[in-house]
Every structure is written in structure tokens, then in C-alpha cells.
Design brief:
Pfam families: Cobalamin_bind (PF01122), DUF4430 (PF14478)
Structural class: alpha+beta
Subcellular location: Secreted
Number of strands: 8
Distance between the termini: 20 Å
CATH topology of the largest domain: Ferric Hydroxamate Uptake Protein, Chain A, domain 1
Helix content: 10-25%
Keywords: Cobalt, Cobalt transport, Ion transport, Secreted, Signal, Transport
Number of helices: 5
Order of helices and strands: HHHEEHHEEEEEE
Family: Belongs to the eukaryotic cobalamin transport proteins family.
Strand order of the largest sheet: 2-1-8-6-7
Number of domains: 2
CATH architecture of the largest domain: Beta Complex
Radius of gyration: 20 Å
Shape: globular
Strand content: 25-35%
CATH class of the largest domain: Mainly Beta
InterPro entries: Cbl-bd_prot, Cobalamin_Transport, Transcobalamin-like_C
Length: 203
Amino acid sequence: KGNGMIGNIYSMGLALQALEATRKFYAPRKWDCAQAFSVVFAHDYQQPMAIAQVLPALVGTSYLDVAGLDCAATKGVSPNRQLPLSPTLGTHGIPRAPIQVHYSITNTLQGKHFHYSTTVTVPSGSTLLQVMEVAAEENPQTFSFQTEQTSWGPYVTSIHGLAASTEDRTYWQFLSAGDALDEGVGMYKPHAGEHIQAVFSTY
């Protein structure tokens, strides 16, 4: 993309591993290592799968190096545990300011076409999934949705009763200002006044 991003933020970990592991014998063209890593450094990774894929690249290794891993050296090492934050409180227990997020769902691809919009109020820092949950609570007949849990977090399988299908190659795509979101609904945090579009799409 010219700004260091390789695919999207989810693919960066494996892409960096692959480029680092193969750079000695496979170099179709020069790539800007520092620029790519600056994208990683600037992103707040919280998704366990994304972290697991980007960490090896950050320490200059790849999953290929697992065969030579010294397991004895990791004895006694345990991650720090932190208590989860309240969904309505910030890091110091201060209530988070409410924001309004515009949310719309659109289907012009299959069956009876529809387009619905709403504006919901959520605490700042809320995820898109929380925005969708509030919309569904306020108007379940229109904005109800279903998800399935994956190793990358919740994946939206159905909105307004219209389900994605691998056979039809359809899915629910989430956009902001016409651009696809670079994070999933469980991680993306809309800003005040942002318009999030869920569009039934094909690939």
C-alpha cells in the first residue's frame, strides 16, 4: 500500500515472518522493513491470534525457528495478569464519556433488498460489537444479528436474518467512510460521530 501495511493488520504478523525468513534466498523486490514494522509498532494489538503471529517477527524469528526452541529457558516465566476493565469505566475508574455512532445495514445483493440506519449512544472506547448490541437491544426486529466465535474473535454471520454463505460467497462487510475496517467487530472502536456501514457483499 506504500505506507508499510501488508494486506491488513491481521496479516502483518505472518507476512513479516515470511519476508524475514525468506529474505536471504527469495527477494522478488526490495521491501521497506522499517516501514512495515512501524505499522506494527503503532497498532495496539489485543487479539490473541494476532499477537501470537506478530511476536515472532518482533524478536527476529519465525515459526520455522520453533524446532530449535530451548524450552528449559522459558521455565518459571508467566505473563502478568490484569483485571478486565469495566465496560463503562476508564483505566482510573472514571466514567467514559458517551459518544454517538451512526450504524447502517444494507442488502442490495440477495432476496428482498433493505437499508436501515440508526444512531446509538455508547461509552467512548466501545467496540463495534457493543454498538451493534445496543442497536439490537433498541430495535431487535431490524438490527438483530448473530456471530460465531473464531480464533480471531467474533465473526458476524447474520444481520437482520440474512446469513452469509460460503456456497454463495457472501459475507457481511463493515465499512467506515467507504473503506473496509482493518479490525474485526470485537476489536474496532468507532469514534464519535463515525458512520459504520454493514453491507451484504460477495467475494
